[in-house]
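Memo to structure team: turn this sequence into structure tokens by end of day. - J.P.
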Amino acid sequence: MSYAVRDQVIRDLAPVGAPDIAGLIAVAMHDGRVARWMQPDATARHRGSYDYFAIFVEHALRFGDVYTTAEGDTGRLTGAALWLPTTTAVPAPLDYDRRLKEVAGDAYDRACLLDAALDAEHPAGGHHYLAYLAVRPDRQGRGLGSTLLRRHHRRLDAAGLPAYLEANDPRNRDLYLRHGYQVRSVIDLPDGPPLWCMWRPPMD
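Reply from structure team:
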């Protein structure tokens, strides 16, 4: 099913494959604050970011909910949201440690540190986890992130389920605050940027 959004189309199940979604997320996030902390070398970061995000895209396509936005006239992918439920048992990404070592290279230790910090703050109990929300850089600031959030929030609210995420910069944090999230804790990465752990209760 598709829904027209301005000149975009939002789809419940991505009609594009994992490579397209991973490519979009890599373009949107490979120069972000956390990415730069994890791998300061820009060449290495750009080279490995696609394979890094592909791990999580494949996992979400298997076990979660993936939404994408695309330009209505060309079909070009412009945004993606990856949600994972904790209402049922979800395994770790397939062969995760081996794949992470391969793609992270000399950033492996920091990638593990990031994972451990996220796991330590992740709340227990049934909720849906927004693993990634990404919008192509040349389409940011046009409401696509909000559109993707609202689509899944409607489902969560109807089911009476909360949502959880980590915001990786103040602009994203403020976006989530506008959508009903509250900051529940802050992760301070060693010599790195803060991550805001945020919780959204179901709304009427």
